[in-house]
Task: inverse folding
């Protein structure tokens, strides 16, 4: 080679162990799994190679959440159905649920509403709101936990008039 700069060289790339790495036509190397491979680049009579070591690292991390479906308002004297969907990194998974309600402080028992039914398998519950119009505008909390107790979510529910 003369040392001259070639404007658009046609370089050919090759990976010896294609199960470990992939090499694009532009020379971009992507690791596929842990191991070693030799990457070569050839241009006319010029040839070079490098050794590539791919180290696998655990990048998966659980990000479990509960999506509570249902209105954040309930009319006094009426029932409202709530359901839950459990997800890990955006993918739904099956588990049971436990529903509970508390006063607006999040800790004490409330007389504003009661859970009249709950289905741990279907992940649903029905809440019956107080019939006392004095409770209008007040809040309580619905808490949902998976049966293992490792995932929890809350929604704050406001008592409203029917119209």
Result:
């Amino acid at each position: 080679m003369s040392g001259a700069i070639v404007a658009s060289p046609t370089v050919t790339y090759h990976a010896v162990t294609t199960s470990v790495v992939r090499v694009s036509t532009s020379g971009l190397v992507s690791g596929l799994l842990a191991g070693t491979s030799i990457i070569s680049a050839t241009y006319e009579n010029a040839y070079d190679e490098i050794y590539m070591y791919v180290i696998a690292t655990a990048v998966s991390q659980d990000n479990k959440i509960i999506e509570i479906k249902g209105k954040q308002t309930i009319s006094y004297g009426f029932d409202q159905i709530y359901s839950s969907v459990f997800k890990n990194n955006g993918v739904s998974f099956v588990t049971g649920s436990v529903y509970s309600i508390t006063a607006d402080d999040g800790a004490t028992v409330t007389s504003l509403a009661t859970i009249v039914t709950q289905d741990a398998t279907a992940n649903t519950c029905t809440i019956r709101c107080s019939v006392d119009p004095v409770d209008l505008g007040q809040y309580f909390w619905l808490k949902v936990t998976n049966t293992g107790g490792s995932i929890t979510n809350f929604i704050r529910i406001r008592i409203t008039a029917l119209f």
Q: What stands out?
A: The CA atoms of residues 11 and 43 lie 5 Å apart. The chain has a mean pLDDT of 90. The chain has two domains: 12-54, 64-160. The longest strand covers residues 79-88.
